[in-house]
Structures
1.
Amino acid sequence: MSEFVLIHLSAQREHVINHVKGWSITEVINWMRQYGTVAEPKNGSLMVYIFESNAGFKDAFHFTENGNLIVVNSGWLS
């Protein structure tokens, strides 16, 4: 199996979700950190994270109650 390289989370959304299916939240975040930075939420009821890839693309994401990854359409991030 070839390595999946994360460059642009929202553009690769479908493939990323399939790639990390069954992983814990910690595993997903640690994997993402290999390809950029993850800003974790400080507070709030919806835990929204910001991923910025090493290529400079920023995207927001969160997890469902059962740990499924949801990538937010984040064209508003600069």
2.
Amino acid sequence: MLKATRRKEELETSLQRITRDAQSLEQTREALARVHLENVRSATFSEKQNIISKLGIMVYPSEDHKTVRILSRLNPDTEFKVSRQKISMASPKL
């Protein structure tokens, strides 16, 4: 009986620790997202351009400047689930 009670207490303690760790992980993710957003907002144009070139993202405007074609060399087999397909979008001037 004492052994079962001790085991139950160990499991409850373990469950509490896992719950705290999950909450801590979520708080860390939120903090990183805030830092990321602040970095993107405060980055200069050349810094943003450097990041885009490191990711292998290429933007090609059409001859009539009404659409843009965006290509990426990112590998879709990564854990980030990024698509490598060509994307066309309307110009923001429309």
3.
Amino acid sequence: MRKPTNLKFGHRLIKIKYISHELAQKRKIMAEVDPDANVMEIDKSLDHATTLNCIIHEMFHIIAGHYSWEVPANIEELFCETATNGVCDLLSQNPKLVEYLANSLKK
């Protein structure tokens, strides 16, 4: 299975770059997004489930900026983390929901 290399969100096209595990460790990240540059960087050594978790987490940060959340950074991080884990749990426990979403959102 190929990992995604870009994502569309509103007017944005977010490029996903997969960085070496060594660089990710040096920077003390699993993933990070630069909303001004529309670039997300993810440790390429992560498995698919963890990569998906990171993508959703970083997209919540993009959503926070897009919808102008006026919250302290620690509250934004807490929301991004807990919402991501909840969404990933929901999707992993309900494969028919994933299928329904995929089919319902086709244009």
4.
Amino acid sequence: MKLWTEKRMIKPPLPPKLAVASLKLCPLCDSLNARRNPTCFVCGWQGEFIHDAHRVHLSLVLLLEQCPELSEGVRLAPPKRPLLSRMRSFLLERVRKRKPLDLWA
């Protein structure tokens, strides 16, 4: 099985911050769990979980390698355009939609 780094992909399937921030790894069955869950949803483990960022991210990448359709469900918000650019677009749009002024009325 090849990782995304071996396939010469430019970006990983998910940013590491997202994986580290919301997931943990079960030491008994090696399944990914949400950090807010006190027990493992697969085996019911209630002890100490693995929070190592590298191991959690690697497990997530391996999971996405096995089930690529999962990566389609995770979409991050696109970056916002700068404020001046958004204001300029808004004003130009308003000018284009405005009806011409009738000076003879």
